[in-house]
Amino acid sequence: GDTVSLKVEAQFQDINFYGNGKLLAEHVDGRLLSKEIAGGFTGTILGLYASSNGSKSSNYADFKSIHYQGLKD
Asked: DSSP string covering 8-25, please?
């Protein structure tokens, strides 16, 4: 029953991740998504994903919405 708010901010290849307003990871290198590093075309993909980290679980993730807002330079 808990609601989690996730936020991703990117300035070019510098990415910050937030959960419920709290910084989870900062300055993640987005270049790993480039064709030069990945070894081929990766496309541009934005999506939601949930995992039990390899453990059996009866929990589930229910995504109600996703909002995208581009920022001006």
From this structure: EEEETTEEEEEETTEEEE
The pLDDT tens digits of the residues spanning 39-55 come to 877 766 677 788 898 99
Q: What is the pTM of this model?
A: 0.59
Distance CA 13, CA 29 (A): 6
What do you get for the CA distance between the two ends of the chain, in Å? Answer: 38
User: E-assigned strands of 1-73?
Assistant: 6-11, 14-19, 22-29
Q: Give the burial class of 57: count Cβ atoms within 10 A of its Cβ; 0-12 exposed, 13-18 middle, 19 or more buried.
A: exposed
